[in-house]
């Protein structure tokens, strides 16, 4: 396959091309998501859906097990060789962090970096301008847009002039806030021939409103009468672009798959009705889904579910640009994920209400190059300047969601849909709290990740839960796995993916449960069993039950059925290690997402080497 310009880094040896993005830190993420999209085919029925799907999916790359190598960047400078312009001939120096063990594999090698249509070949082999071989200081020659860099410095000055507080940018390692760094615009004297001009990532979080650009829950949006439908009041548009009906219809993509949306949804719901064996672990049946959800669901005259009257209400639309890139847990889209959160409803009339059965539709955003990603990020940030819920705001938001929600946007993914996975988080049809995950299957994914028998092409199938072992493995496999993978777990960014099987034992689970009450993390054993306590913490935090439960002291959901946010999504959060009582850790998830969005939207593509991704996927 011809490499596309969405790739930022390529090792000189054989490494799959990927695009890097995610939480801000002084390290490099590498990753892409899907191959370069092909032109969409006409939306016409297919004669043999199964045969056509199998052929289409054979070339898909949606396997979450695939994580590339990536270097960790310490600094990058451009040295202009002529007058400042949009394409000034320059020498670049890239320094990798010698303290990061993962950088040893790149010592003395070459690295290719793409900036728009320009490929920069960085050398550490002592040739073509590289002074010393094997010192992790890479050199390259090319051009650089100093006009844009100077404009960014003016943006920083303008932001400082309008702020009552000194400007800072936040630095994260994984999900932990490690420090804030003062932000000062570069002095104009730096922009001279022969001067070393630093290229560094700066995100101005104060220029992003989370309520308008990140986690959108305003009633004027989630109750938009043109785009949503309320099953409690029967108000709105049953086919609106933010309805459960529209989104599942697009995901089923009947013109391509031959699968009717009603069948697609009903077969998905059936997966709670009987026990499911996933990677040998059994997810028990939750038969209450029938009397609580399926039976009351309004039906068509044929007896099929009436999707136009789906008992799911929109709770939130979420921008997860920060999940883009080399997140080892998912084959995400090139611009992270876009998400819709729905809550099931019960009752009629004045007694109708949302219940703790959350459905999260998580779409990859397939953008093919840095400039497209940057434009997409700018569109999200522009929402911060519009009146929340106004006609202009809602129209702009729809233009964004249609970039991942409508059919045929990802021709090489299952059903040609951009969906990565569908997750559920519920207590309504059974106990304890349970999280499940469903994916469309393609022939590149290990079928053991899915429920047996199956999986079925073109359908949502029960799938293992990301980064989370089955709880039964705690006494036997948990500690040996963590102890055997400490470097990958504590790396910044983490480079591990919880495998299906470890030491000949099934490991990754088919569901995640969060019993209550809880006081200390479930994914914990004494220091005698797991000596590296940071590895224990990171592993636990990146599990579904750790993130949604005891590692953060969280109450099961991050966005609940009424739109309420968890403490983790509500601002700064500090507390001592919940297993050992120390150290104290600081989190500010929303600040991380604000910082990342502003940086991506406003800075040179060459700052992307400093972006890292956590193994967290929740």
Q: Can you tell me about this structure?
A:
The protein is of the alpha+beta class and 618 residues long. The chain folds into two domains: 73-202 and 603-610, no CATH class; 215-363 and 382-595, no CATH class. The protein is 22% helix and 22% strand. The chain has 15 helices and 26 strands. The strands form eight sheets. Strands 10, 15, 16, 17, 18, 19, 21 and 24 form an eight-stranded antiparallel sheet that branches. A four-stranded antiparallel sheet has the order 6-3-2-9, with no helix packed on it. β4 and β5 (118-123) form a beta hairpin. The chain is globular, with a radius of gyration of 24 Å. The two termini are 32 Å apart. Mean pLDDT is 86; it is low at 1-67 and 326-333.
